Recover the amino acids of this structure.
């Protein structure tokens, strides 16, 4: 990334702030979810939430620098024994395939429900809403956003390869869902990725509530 990148400390603080806001919304309860942002392109390094971190109490000091294999060669910023989230490989797929500067992953109620409800279609289409215009490059409510759904898997290398296929198959998608698990989205900056989380969580909740209406 160009030399205009924020410092690692500023990036960690911005991710910690996002974590507290998402926790307050109920999108990352019980230490769920994980966040990352690119701090260096060559060599590739992501600053990432460690496994098991509570997102409501992040300070920014617990983040780990993760390499292109999803490993944290150095200890956390506090020198702790923290290890990177097992889902680091999925963040790396998004960075590699989308050129993202930040990747945010939530475990909200609505993403969990809809990822199951629409799993038989391997995705869900959202169209006709003004809020779609909050997604990068979207100019009209008539945009049709396809959100691929990937079956959940505890084998991370295998899941990462399925995610890679979904990202390549749907090059315009702004997000994907893991079935009965949660939402992944991204952006050029942390602010862009955070806006995408807010827009998509809004749209998923709208779709979810609407789908329970009598037709
Ligand atoms: Zn997760």
């Amino acid at each position: 990334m160009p030399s205009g990148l924020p410092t690692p400390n500023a990036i960690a603080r911005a991710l910690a702030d996002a974590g507290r806001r998402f926790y307050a919304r109920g999108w990352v309860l019980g230490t769920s979810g994980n966040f990352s942002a690119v701090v260096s392109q060559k060599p590739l390094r992501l600053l990432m939430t460690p496994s098991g971190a509570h997102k409501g109490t992040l300070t920014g000091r617990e983040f780990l620098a993760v390499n292109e294999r999803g490993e944290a060669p150095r200890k956390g910023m506090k020198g702790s024994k923290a290890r990177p989230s097992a889902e680091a490989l999925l963040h790396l797929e998004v960075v590699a395939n989308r050129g993202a500067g930040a990747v945010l992953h939530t475990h909200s109620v609505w993403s969990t429900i809809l990822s199951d409800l629409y799993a038989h279609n391997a995705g869900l289409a959202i169209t006709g809403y003004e809020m779609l215009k909050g997604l990068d490059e979207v100019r009209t409510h008539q945009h049709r956003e396809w959100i691929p759904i990937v079956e959940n898997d505890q084998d991370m290398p295998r899941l990462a390869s399925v995610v890679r296929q979904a990202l390549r198959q749907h090059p315009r998608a702004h997000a994907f869902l893991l079935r009965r698990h949660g939402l992944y989205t991204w952006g050029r900056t942390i602010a862009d990725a955070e806006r995408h989380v807010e827009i998509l969580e809004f749209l998923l909740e709208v779709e979810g509530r609407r789908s329970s209406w009598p037709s």
Summary: The beta strands are 34-40, 45-48, 64-66, 102-106, 123-127, 144-150, 175-178, 182-187. The two ends are 49 Å apart (CA to CA). The pocket of zinc ion is lined by residues 87, 105, 107, 181-182 (CB under 6 Å).
